[in-house]
Amino acid sequence: QVQLVESGGGLVQAGGSLRLSCAASGRTFSRYAMGWFRQAPGKEREFVATITWSGGVTNYADAGKGRFTISRDNAKNTLYRQMNSRKSEDTAVYLCAAGTTTSILRERRTSTYYDYWGQGTQVTVSS
Fold first, then answer.
1. What spatial distance separates the first Cα and last Cα of the chain, rounded to whole Å?
2. 19-61 pLDDT, tens per residue?
3. Mind listing the pLDDT tens digit for each residue in 89-103?
4. Which of 91, 86, 115, 112 is nearest to 17 (CA)?
């Protein structure tokens, strides 16, 4: 079992920055690919970013390219996401997820690949 707990959400003004964290416990965090997803009210869950177990490969949804950065610290069992230049359309619940199997990038961009999920943290961007 892997337990994931997100933190760092809150209310931020448009154009501001926010860093989300995802603390992992349980099995070996450093073995897993990780991802960030978000879900806005009335919308489906959508891919935001993913990172391989080593942190060597990252990938982003088009909406976040240039504004979002995903990173991880395997020594601290923690995943991060830096969010800059926030827009009102970024308002959503942000969830982190862990994938335990070997994968290709196309798979890691989909929610079905991931085995474990956190409860999410709310981010609200005010204009």
1. 40
2. 999 999 977 888 999 999 999 999 999 999 999 998 889 999 9
3. 999 999 999 999 888
4. 86
Tokens found for residue 13:
């003004």
Determine the Cα–Cα distance for residues 101 and 87; give it in Å rounded to an integer: 34
CA separation for the pair 26, 61 (Å, rounded)? 28
Alpha-carbon dihedral sign for residues 100, 4, 53, 95: positive
In one-letter notation, the amino acid at residue 14 is A
**How far apart are alpha carbons 34 and 22 in whole angstroms?**
10
Neighbours of 28 (CB within 10 A): 12
C-alpha dihedral sign at 65, 52, 55, 118: positive
